[in-house]
Amino acid sequence: MSNKTFHTHTCTLFSQDPAGRALSSDGFKDEYFYLDVPADTADSGDYCCQLDCRAPDFCCLDDQSPLRSCATVHVQTNKKVEVVTKESVSLEAFSQLQQQVLDLARSQQESHDGGCRQSAVTAIAHLAELQAKSDAYLNTVKSFEKELERSLENVKNISAEDRVKLQIETNQMLQNVQLQLDYNISKAMETCNDFQQQLRVEDMKLELNQTTLSTSVEALEQRLDKDFLEMSKSSAKMQNNLETNMKSMQSLEAQMNNFSKVADKRFVQLEAERTNRTANLQQAITKDVSKLEETLSALERKLSAMEETFEKKMVQQISDMKISFTQYQQTTAQELTDVRGRTDTRLSQLERRLSTSENTINSHVTSSSQSHTSLVSELAAFVRKTNAVTESLKNQLTTMNNQLTAKRCESGVKHFSPHDQPSDGSLWRTKTDHVDFTRPFTTKPTVAIGITSLDVSNWSNLRIQVRVGTISTSGFDVHASEWSDTYTYSVAAVWMACNV
Asked: Which of 27, 59, 289, 343 is placed for a possible disulfide with 10 were both Cys, Cβ 3.0 to 4.6 Å?
């Protein structure tokens, strides 16, 4: 880049390598800036170069000048990149680590560039402000010079003393302007020096970070080698454990198959025994019921015969009482007729015999009352005897019912619906339901239970068990347990409760 039209002490070359890192200028010679890039270590690619002014107020480089834009220069170097592959380090892991290192370096560089650019922008803004003030002072001086020239023309005829005084004032004013300009320039140079010092400090920090990062990468490589070795040992150990576990699982599966066969045979035997016991119990109950029905029929026939005999006796006794009373009425009427016939002639005799007749009548009435009382007593005794027989039959019937109740059996089916996983993370999931008897037993019965209509998400029913919990005279609890990876869609538990 030619620098014929710019002051070399105010323009600076900014360069960047293909990775975006800033490069410092190596000097200006023969109207060109030179950048010394080692061919064996530098990266190949496009290098970016542009001009900028450290003191914009003293540089005539326009803000819109194309020279302020980055110019791309393609550089081809002889840098060789040697890649060494280590079998102990995973290529994918090392690539990820390398990418992370590059991202970290890029982030640091962007942060560094952003801070430098911000500092540079601040310094340039400050210099621009100082340049504006300096331009204002220069314009003031130029205006003052023009006015001074006009004044000098007008004061040619002024006395020597006035000229000396005016010269002193003019020199003093020029000296003040020069001092102000020197002060502004010194402040601008101090700002530039501070900015350069800050850049050097940031470069040192960046080099230190790169050194630390390289050390970390080496340590990480060593750690990866060590971890890979440990992983290889762990993998071999896990392979041995897996083979041992597979053998144990095969042995356990064989044992479970044998247990399943034995359990199936035992279940068939229990089912046959239960069927036989149920049939025998049903036959015994049928026989007892038949005997009870025959006994009740005999009792009913006996009671009917007793009622017929009682009715016949009552009819006969009532008929006899009617005949006796009729005869008594007839005798009394005849006697009264005879008395009435002899009323006139034998009134006195009738009066004498009246008391005798009354005594006779009273005697007959007393005799009739005693016969009625005796009959009522006999009927009451017969009723009491009949009630005693009926009560005895009722007691016998109650005793038979109690015996049948005490020796009865009841069966049923309990269906289980799906239930959720246990919240405590245990290996078993459980479900508990309660079964109520149709009517309570007199004593606590014995309950037998089995599984039928099983539908689970696994091929075997060896992962579920059903057992009986608390038993009372009114019902019992059923517990269903299964492995946590077994999901039960439906299961029916067949139960029988007997009190023998």
From this structure: 59
